[in-house]
Amino acid sequence: MATTVRSRQQLKRALLAECVHLQQQKVHHAQQAMEQAQESANEQPSASEDKFESFREACHIQRELFARHWQEAQRNLQVLQRLPDIAVPAGSIGLGAVVVTNRYTYFIAVSLGEIQLEGEKYCVMSPFSPLFLAMAPHAVGDTFSFRGQSYSIQKVF
Known about the structure:
alpha+beta; elongated
């Protein structure tokens, strides 16, 4: 049994490490996009000043959009970095849990979607997602429905 617990902990650590890596990439890409939009807005005006001002305004709007993406990516990265400190009660479906169903294996963390780890597919989802909210009140052995699909919870760790 100790080997199973150890391998489950190793899986959770590996999932978390992959999620942190992916989230850091999101932060980096949003930062780059934000900087590029700002650089475009700062370029020298061309002969047509009116066109340049509307272009500059469009660049500022785009920069603000990327800034919001960057802030969200930063918040999600902070959640992932705090995840090891969160104590999840055994068998509880909550932040930091791995939930194995008959359809998929889920890692409850932030919304990253499907990831691959050592040839296996995992769905990394937020505790605010509709699917999580449907599964959260259940336990191992329970069955629940979501959007016309039936799910059976096989393991939670």
